[in-house]
Structures are given as structure tokens and as C-alpha cells.
């Protein structure tokens, strides 16, 4: 399972980084490029905060939380025994690492960098592939928890009262 986890994380992280590099090189900030009429397009923006531009004054805190989350995911991944958990945790690692990379290495500086967002639906905040990874991971984790499947692949016993 660890190979699947690592492969998912590496592939999605690379996809996120390549997408952001492409967006920065080829999109003009503030201009929208419609791809599917007015329903989906590209619009380069830089986000100093978290999802939906929350916490814009706390980039350092978000960076530390991201590092903590990465450590936790790596720690938990040692017990992987479920393919779905491997995919979910791999996606979570990729998403958190992708946005952390921006916070560490993009302007205005280390731990203060702004995350590159460029995917746009009307009436919805602009986002990136890392954000998709985090949301898909959250859905997988919730599904596995509701199914009672632990990270190790075993069904978690429910206490009957």
C-alpha cells in the first residue's frame, strides 16, 4: 500500500506544481480565459490565505499547520492496509505539500508566499489542483470512516450500547 500512497502523492503533487508553473508563465493576472464558455476557465490569482481566501493574515501559521499535517500523514501512512486509504492519504499529502511549496518558495518570501490559484468556475472561489486533492482526500477519509474501515484496512468495531 505504501507504493500506491507514494505514487498517488508524487503524481498529484507533480500535476499541481506543473499546473501552477504553467499558469504563472502563460496567464495574465486578473484576466479570465474561458475554456468551456462562461462555465469554466482559467484566471490567475495569488492567495495569501487558505481555502476561500480565509486566514490571509496567518500565512506563517498555515505553513506550520501544513508541515504538521504532512508529518501526521507520513506517520499514519506507515499503517496503510487499504487501497482507498492509500489514495486518500496520497491525495492529502500532495495537496497540502503543493500549497505549502507555494507558501515556502513564492513571493513575498519564505513562510509568507502566496498560493497560486487559477481554476475558475463562475460564482465560486478560484482554486488549484492541490485544493482539489485536499477535498477529494477529505471525501475519501469521510467515506472510509463512515464505512468503519481503518487505515490498516480492518473494519473498526463499533461499541454497542
TrEMBL record:
The alphabetized UniProt keywords are: Aspartyl protease, Cell membrane, Hydrolase, Membrane, Protease, Transmembrane, Transmembrane helix
**EC nos:** 3.4.23.36
- The keyword Transmembrane helix is annotated on this UniProt entry: yes
Question: Pathway it acts in?
Answer: Protein modification; lipoprotein biosynthesis (signal peptide cleavage)
Subcellular location(s) per record: Cell membrane
Where in the sequence is the active site?
Answer: 117, 131
This entry's Gene Ontology molecular function terms read: aspartic-type endopeptidase activity
Q: How does it sit in the membrane?
A: Multi-pass membrane protein
Q: Which GO terms describe its cellular component?
A: plasma membrane
The Gene Ontology biological process annotation of the record reads:
proteolysis
Q: Where are the transmembrane segments?
A: 57-77, 84-101, 121-146
* InterPro entries to which the protein is assigned, alphabetical: Peptidase_A8 (IPR001872)
Q: Does the keyword Ubl conjugation apply?
A: no
Q: Name one Pfam family in it.
A: Peptidase_A8
Q: Which reaction does it catalyse?
A: Release of signal peptides from bacterial membrane prolipoproteins. Hydrolyzes -Xaa-Yaa-Zaa-|-(S,diacylglyceryl)Cys-, in which Xaa is hydrophobic (preferably Leu), and Yaa (Ala or Ser) and Zaa (Gly or Ala) have small, neutral side chains
What the record says about family reads:
Belongs to the peptidase A8 family.
What does the UniProt record say this protein does?
A: This protein specifically catalyzes the removal of signal peptides from prolipoproteins.
Q: Which NCBIfam families match?
A: lspA
Q: What is this protein called?
A: Lipoprotein signal peptidase
The primary gene name is: lspA
